[in-house]
Automatic annotation (TrEMBL):
Pathway: Amino-acid degradation; L-arginine degradation via ADI pathway; carbamoyl phosphate from L-arginine: step 1/2. NCBIfam families: arcA, PRK01388.1. It is found in: Cytoplasm. PANTHER family: ARGININE DEIMINASE. One of its GO terms (cellular component) is cytoplasm. It comes from Lentilactobacillus diolivorans DSM 14421. Pfam families: ADI (PF02274). Its main location: cytoplasm. This is Arginine deiminase. The gene is arcA. GO terms for biological process: L-arginine deiminase pathway. InterPro entries: Arg_deiminase. Its EC number is 3.5.3.6. Belongs to the arginine deiminase family.
């Protein structure tokens, strides 16, 4: 049986990818809610959708099959029947703060009146209090949340399908994410893997599931080749989770090396892929801002070992040398975002100039607004497919963040 998931690199010809078209969730919030929802602005939805459609079209024009999270979720529910629908709804409500009680019942009744597809779209978009004819009488509602307009918060980050899960080899990590604003997202991925006819009962290995307290997000998980991963130690991914997934991969898969790369912990660089992506066999984009004096950065090469943790570590600080060693290459081309000009580098990194989606060796999709970095990529021999990006970039994520590769051709 061929596995529905097959992803042994960052650069192999992309065959199938998971996307989410931005919906009501990206405008269903107030400026006050933005920091908590991890957004920096209020996007203009019709334009965000147009841009996203352009991105998806670019992928399809290049032979990529595009799957949509919102559609797969509804199809999984269709396949799972009323039992699954009930179980999914209960879990979603519990994780939204309503494990039981009158509000739980009112929300359940409201959502249960919808078709599977409408219910999924509604949960993603959020439920406002004024949508339901219900007046809670509990103390929390009266004393703490009376003025808050939502029962269920919107999930505006869903179009960054990279993060809630990551396909590695013929398996997947379904992630326990860092901030409450995103933690419910991976429930959709879990349901799809377990119940969607395309994925269910196909022997997919779950390297690490979402039932953990330690946190990891797909933006930090880079599949460098068929036995080496790079994982960011970042605002979103803890060292603890990296050790945990490394142990699982070493035990159950052909992966034998995890390169942990420590990056600054801040919103502009929340994941490794916002500062470092692989674009060809021996080429990478890198934001100069992550490199310290003399180009140094903390990395740990993790392999299986006999120590207490079952792992052994080698600490090194020369990124280029480390990459050459783990990838067994004579040389590596590190392409600096913004051409190394500190002002341009910071500006373009902010709008995801380092966040390229590689769709074949040396062929990348990038935001058109990062024109200095794009030009430099071309000078380094890459084919650059630019996509329009005024509104999508307001969510702080680029082409790699907006895509979850499911199948890539082997190199
Ligand atoms: N893989 C990525 N870099 N994803 C970007 C996610 C951006 C999103 N607003 C967040 O803060 O979570």
């Amino acid at each position: 049986m061929t596995s529905p998931i097959h992803n042994y690199s960052e650069i192999g010809k992309l065959k199938t990818v998971l996307l989410k078209r931005p919906g009501r969730e990206v405008e269903n919030f107030t400026p006050e809610m933005m920091p908590r929802l991890l957004f920096d602005d209020i996007p203009y939805l019709p334009m965000a959708q147009k841009e996203h459609d352009y991105f998806a079209e670019t992928l399809r024009d290049n032979g990529v099959e595009t799957l949509y999270l919102e559609k797969l979720s509804a199809e999984a529910l269709d396949a799972g029947g009323s039992e699954l629908r009930d179980q999914f709804l209960e879990q979603m409500l519990a994780e939204s703060g309503y494990p039981y009680g009158a509000t739980h019942d009112a929300l359940k009744e409201y959502l249960d009146s919808m078709s599977n597809q409408d219910m999924i779209i509604k949960i993603m978009a959020g439920v406002r209090k004024n949508e339901i004819d219900f007046h809670p009488s509990d103390l929390v509602s009266a004393a703490e949340t009376e003025d808050y307009p939502f029962y269920l918060d919107p999930m505006p980050n869903l179009y960054f399908t990279r993060d809630p899960s990551a396909c590695i080899g013929e398996g997947i990590s379904i992630n326990h994410m860092t901030f409450p604003a995103r933690q419910r997202e991976s429930l959709f991925n879990e349901m799809i893997i377990n119940y969607h006819p395309r994925f269910a009962n196909k022997g997919i290995h779950v390297w690490r599931d979402r039932n953990h307290n330690t946190r990891i997000e797909g933006g930090d998980e880079l599949v460098l080749n068929d036995h080496v991963m790079a994982i960011g130690v970042s605002e979103r991914t803890s060292a603890h989770a990296i050790q945990d997934i490394a142990r699982s991969l070493f035990k159950n898969s052909q992966y034998d090396t995890v390169l942990a790369v420590s990056i600054p912990h801040n919103h502009a660089m929340m994941h490794l892929d916002t500062v470092f992506t692989m674009v060809n066999y021996d080429q990478f984009t890198v934001h100069p801002g992550i490199l310290g004096e003399g180009g140094k950065i903390d990395t740990w090469t993790i392999t299986a070992g006999k120590g207490e943790s079952g792992l052994q570590l080698q600490h090194r600080t020369d990124l280029k040398a480390v990459l050459k060693d783990v990838l067994n290459l004579d040389d590596i081309d590190l392409i600096p975002t913004g051409g190394g000009d500190p002002i341009i580098a910071d500006r373009e990194q902010w709008n995801d100039g380092s966040n390229t989606l590689t769709i074949a060796p040396g062929v990348v999709v990038t935001y058109n607004r990062n024109y200095v970095s794009n030009e430099l990529l071309r000078k380094h021999g890459l084919k650059v497919l630019e996509v329009i990006s005024s509104e999508l970039s307001r969510g702080r994520g680029g082409p790699r963040c907006m895509s979850c590769p499911i199948v890539r051709e082997d190199l």
